[in-house]
Structures are given as structure tokens and as C-alpha cells.
Amino acid sequence: MYRLPPLLRRWIWLSFVFISGCAQLQLEQWDAHYGKATPKERAVSAPGPLTYYGQIRPLLEKRCVNCHGCYDAPCQLKQEAYEGLLRGANAQPVYGTRLLAAEPTRLFEDAQTTAEWRSKGFYPVFNERRAEGNNNLQLSLLAQTLILKKNHPLPSKGLLPERFALGLDAKYECPRIETYQAFAKANPLAGMPYGLPALKPAEAKKILDWVSLGAPMGSPPQLPSQADEQLQQWEAFFNGPSLKQQLVGRYLYEHLFLAHLYFANAPGAHFRLVRSKTPPGEPIDPISTRRPYDDPGVARVYYRLRLDPSSLLAKTYMPYALSAERLALWHSWFLNPNFTVDRLPNYSEAESANPFITFAQLPVEARYRFLLSEAQFTIMNFIKGPVCRGQVALNVIQDHFWVFFLAPETQQGAPFAQFLAYNSAHLYLPVMESNNLIPVGSWATYSRLQMNYLEAKAAYVRESLKSEENLGLGLIWDGDGGRNPNAALTIFRHRDSASVHQGLIGPAPKTAWVIGYPLLERIHYLLVAGFDVYGNVPHQLMSRLYMDFLRIEGEMNFVELLPKKTQQTELAFWYRDAERDLQRYIDAYLNHMPDRPLLQYSSADPKQELFQALRQHLGQAAQSPRHLNPRTATEHTLDALRLPPAALKWLPQTTLLLVPEEGIFTLVHVSAYSNLSSLFGEERRRRPLEDQLIITRGVVGAYPNSFFRVNRQDLALWAAQLASLNSEADYQTLKRRFGVRRTDANFWAHSDDLARIFHQQQPSEAAVLDYNRLENR
Hints:
The protein has 29 helices and 12 strands. The strands form 3 sheets. A 4-stranded mixed beta sheet has the order 3-2-1-4. It has a 4-stranded mixed beta sheet with strand order 7-6-5-8. The radius of gyration is 27 Å and the shape is globular. It is an alpha/beta fold. The relative contact order is 0.09. The chain starts with 5 loop residues before the first helix and ends in a 16-residue tail after the last helix. Residues 14-21 have low confidence and may be disordered.
């Protein structure tokens, strides 16, 4: 190992001592002048002219939460809750490459007081010293960033200078209040909102006046009285005394811990299902562990509903209704069937991370119907849940594909349960390995395990075909006769984020998945329950590696339904230029697949024939409110819009088009690839001539890249200019005429219009959009 020369080591040590000494001296000077800092704790305050819950929260949601929310909030300053503002900022980014796992810093979980957050390296954005004179403003980082923007506004048109840190890989500077004046002098355009126009004077004044009053919290919203009875009823259900009820409670918790749970008679109040040391009726004493299946360290766990005070962010919002109908269904699936739970599973890492072992005593049909009944939520968890965004987790999927599900009737009964029990070892997941060690597993190891599982699965299917009639299209879940809209899903990938939508959107995609219970459960435990955003590089790489096998399995389940003679041709197109090892794996997979085509095919294009048959089979469940209605003039113009590759290449991943008289539409740029079999070299596998444009009603995606605002009478002109794009200069000309750029004087007015119409068009989905990915073009 290389050792630094002694003189250089001494120089580095002296420099460190000098810098540390200067920082300590500065803090001592501040202590002497302003008084020692005392962490500002959460405290209910009397109603007043300005409080967080009274007047400030709605303003922050419109102007600040657009960037400062979830794990990718710059400097970890999460402004979607008052507790996040009290916690403050931290210069250490959550996302990054690390050899050792980092200590998690999840709001509401990993610390309960501001003082605890200070011990974890977070520093204040409010004054925590003497509240005298002008100190509350002068010593508030939040206030000083607004004042800096007021004194040094952005250009009112055109592009921002290249020195602005924008985009996914932006390197933010995170100064403390003690060093902010020097930072501001060197970076006069770094005021907040960063890279966006200043707040209106009245808005900025309202926030500054609030900060000058000491940033009082006010009274947080209380649970509506009509929801008290439901809260008690549901907590009683989650915490039944029998072993069966306790195991069911654990299963539900490990699948709902990220959900925004709500009651029908209190739709504005959202809850988180949390583990507590205390039973219902007592204050919640939270159990915080890295993963939801980690050892809680207590003899009895209680599952409690904690009111979540956070603003709703589109990139994390996953609503899930707790209703009388759902409670009756869960009883019929989990509690009413006659089965026995004779012991509770332990929390050892080898078992708790494997749901096929942990929950083997619960009926497979119950587990599958639970996941299937809200399949959009189930799939959305791995996209929105633990990461908010993340290319490592998402570059394993296509930019546009459809998802179908095996019928519950095919995933039930004693033979199927025995099949899962016998193959639980083959379903070993990388999350079972230590987060702080280089995993000993390799592609070959997981490939062998997956092939062993495939062989067993093929044998099981062959045996099943002998004993049952050919199900035909009945093999695929039809949403209980089309009543459940979760039976068909469309997934869009937007480079480093993704979105999941009910129904079949867009033209027939290149690929599709068919998912059954074992695959659906493994996706959840790999990328939701078992994925650690604070984990090390090996953990994240192995998770991505294993997701390759799960994607292939879902795709193969679809290919299996095509005529045998066309399967190889289809796969050869999906996996062009794939590595030899992967190609051999796919060939072996193909050879193991039993011959069970879904239809009596008669056309020259079996895949399109299958898609059409599935549409008819699914009925209403295949429909989507995102579809354009070409009978209206505006939507006819959009439906007829075709962009040649030369024009499409200039569009970003997601563009929101606002036609004031009509509503919001999304232009989704679907990027094509020869294959998605490797973590690296994505650009080398791009096939831009195969790209597509899909235009939908409403908002698609949580991270818009570009805004256009076009009046109805100008739509044809806008469409013609869009279709004729041939250069970056053409695109910028179009943006000058119809775009709303970061520097636009009307940016915030346009943002308010988007939020208002978003809630009108999609009331059950609407939440605060994230502006961290807005382009500077």
C-alpha cells in the first residue's frame, strides 16, 4: 500500500488542525456574540398572524417543496414537514458511491428530536441562538437565502449561466449560517429558490416575517373525530392476539410501510403503518430499523397508524384506502380460511428477508390476491418507494412496457404451495447478504439459482397441464371481470425515475411482462423491503444485477404465450448485442419453457394478435383515462402529431404541455435500446431511430423536464414547429415562442396553474411535482 511521504503527511495534519481550529474559533466568537445555540424543538404554539400550519405551509408547498423533498432534497433539507425544517441541513448527500453503508437519516424514524439530529451532523436553518433584535432573520439560513435572491435576482429571460449546478449529478454547496455571508459574496446568484425566479415580494415578506417571529409551528391538523372509530378498528385488526393475526399483521406491515393510508371519511389525513413497542391506546414508541423485516428487539411488536404531517410529493405519494370493503376482503383472505399458525417466524437475516420462508404458513392465494388487488401500488413501491429516484434501480427496465398478471386460480392450492416451499432456497435474494461486505455472490451464482428455479417451475407447469383443461385466455387475470383497473398496467421509465399507470397506454410496446405471485413477491423484497438507499455500492449493484433475472422472468412469461416458432425471433430482437453469458442464459431459459401458446394464432404477427386478444379479454380494465379523445379538436391535433427521429431527438424525457382552455398533456419521449442487460454503457446501446413519442392526457411522471404553454388557437402552429425540429437552435426558438423556462417572469404563475389543473384532472393522484430535473435550454 502506498504511503504518503512524512513531510506531506505532517503538512496535511497541520492543515486539518488549522482549519478545525479556525472553525472552532469562529464558533466561539458566535457563541460570545449571539449566545450558545440551543436546538429548536417542535412545540405547539397558540394561533397567531403567521404560523407554519396556518399560513406558511401552503406557500412552501408551492415554492420550496418542489425541490426540497425526499432523499434527493439538496443538502438533505426536507421542507415537506415542519419537523424537516427543524432538522435542518446536512452537507452529506444520501446518494453516492460508498464502500460501507451509511447511517440512515430518515425523517421521523432515525431521530425523534432536533437535538438528536444535531448529534447526527444536521445544522439549523432557523436561529437557535438568542432571539433578540434582528437575530431571528440574521441567523436564519432560510431567511438569508431568500434575501440573497431578492438582492440578486436571476436574469428574466434566456438561459442560466453554465456555472449553475443543475440536474441529477449536481454538486451542491451546503454552507452553514456561520459561513453564509462569505458564500453569498462568492455566489451572489445562489439565493433561493435556486435556479428559479424569486418569490413575489409579498410571498417572500410573509416567510421572512414568520421567521422573524421565531418560525412558530401553530397547531398541527388533528385527526377528524369521525375517523377515531376507524383508527381504533384498524389498529385492533393489525394487532390481533392470536398467532395467525400476528403473522398476518407482520405480512401486511412489510408490504404497506411506505403507503399513504387514509380513511374514506377523512381523505385529507394520511397515515403511516409503523412498528411500535406500545399497544393501541398508548402513545406510539417507534421501532426504527434499517429494513422493515429487521429484528425489532422486543418480544411483541405492535403495528400502529401514525398520522403523517408531511406534504404530498408526487415522487413518493402512494395512496391506499382503508375501507370497510377492504377490511372484509382481508378477513376473507387471511383470517377466515381454516389454517393454523403454530409458531411465529424469527427475525434472522437468512429467513426474514425470504418471504417464502417467513410467511409459508399463510395461504399463497391470500398473499397473491392482496398484492394483486392493488397491483399498481405494489409495482409503484419499487419505483417511488425507497429511493424517490435512482438509475441503479431503474435502468434495468424499458422506457415503455405493459404488465399483465397470472390469474389467481393458477397461483393457489396445495401443489402450488408445495412448489414454493420446495424451491424457497432457489429464490435466494441478494438482500440476504451483509450490506458492508463485498457480496460473495456473482452473476453465475444467481444465474444457477434462477435456472434451478426455472427447471422446477417448468416441471410444475408441465404436470399442471396434464391435470387441468387448457385455460386459454383465462390464464391471465381479467381484473375480476374488468372491475379492477389493476389488471393491466403501463410503466414508463423517465431515465432516472419512472411512473406506473392503470390501463394500456400508447401503441403496442416492444416488450411486456406477465407476473405471478413468486415474481411479484421477489420484486417487492428485492427493491422495496430489502433495498437500502443508504447501502454500499455492492448492495446496490447486486440488487440491480438480480433485477435483471426478474425482468427476464417477467418477459419470458409473456414470450411463453407466443407460438414456439416465433419465440426465438422475438427474444433475438429484445436482446440484440447482449453479452454471451446472458444470451446463453436466455437460450437455456427458452429451452426449459413448456409449450402452451395462449391462442390459436392465425396472423403473421402473433405478438400484435396476442395484445389485441388481451385487450378484449381485459375489457374495461385495459382502458385508461390517459387516452386522448380525437373527437375534440385539440386532442385530434395531438393524436395526429408524428415526430420523425430527427425532431424527436431534441425532446427531453417528459414535457408538460398546458393548453389553458383544455388542460395538461404529457409528451413522453420513449427511448429505445438494443438491450438492457448491462449496468454500464447505456448510451452505446441507444437506438434513437426506434424512439417513440407518446402523448397522454394529464400528468405522467413526477419530474417534468420541460414546460410548454400553448393557447388552443396556436396549437397547430406549435405542433408544426415541433415536428420540424432539426437542431438545438430550432428547439430553443420553439421554447422562446411557447416555452416556460426557468428564468421566465411568469414561471411561478404557470407553476400554480399546473398544480391547480393537476388536482382538477387527477384528484386521486395529484401532489407536488419535483423541479430538480427541469432543463436549462
